[in-house]
Amino acid sequence: MKLNDIRDNPGSSKDRMRVGRGIGSGKGKQAGRGGKGQTARSGVRIKGFEGGQMPLHRRLPKRGFNAPFSTDYNEVNLGRLQQAVEAGKLDAGKPVTLEALIEAGVCAKARDGVKILGNGELTAKLNLEVAAASKSAVSAIEKAGGSVKLLNEVVEAAEA
Questions:
Q1: Do 137 and 118 form a contact (C-beta atoms < 8 A)?
Q2: With a threshold of 0.85, does the pTM exceed it?
Q3: Cα–Cα distance, 131 to 110 (Å, whole number)
Q4: Fold topology of 74-159
Q5: 3-state secondary structure (DSSP) of residue 28
Q6: Rounded CA gap, 109 and 150, in Å?
Q7: Mean pLDDT in residue range 78-96
Q8: Where in the chain is the domain with CATH 3.100.10.10?
């Protein structure tokens, strides 16, 4: 086989329709563009134009704000950590990191890190290495004999 032997499958492509070549062609006069005016021209077609009335998208108020540098944490409650330890998915002897939580099925995907929240009871002694934690969560973890290492503080100290 040579490059000049290669052909498309028969029927896989259609020939281009030559428009505006007389009424006998079936695409003569206005060439399938409808009537005259703005819609018959190339490039210009006003979407959302309501005949001069103020369009709906301009009548409605602008609302909201998207913070460009916002953080999206995986929020994990203490009760969920305790469930994972009791089910044998989290090893209390090793440090609990984002990778360990994903492996245990507590978090689905990485996002910007993990934030520990204080809802639920924690009895296991855990050493957590997370991006953020609430004050109530930190106190509950330390009360159970564990420790919390915040990774964001390490990043901020390195930048300073």
A1: yes
A2: no
A3: 11
A4: Ribosomal Protein L15; Chain: K; domain 2 (3.100.10)
A5: coil
A6: 19
A7: 92
A8: 74-159
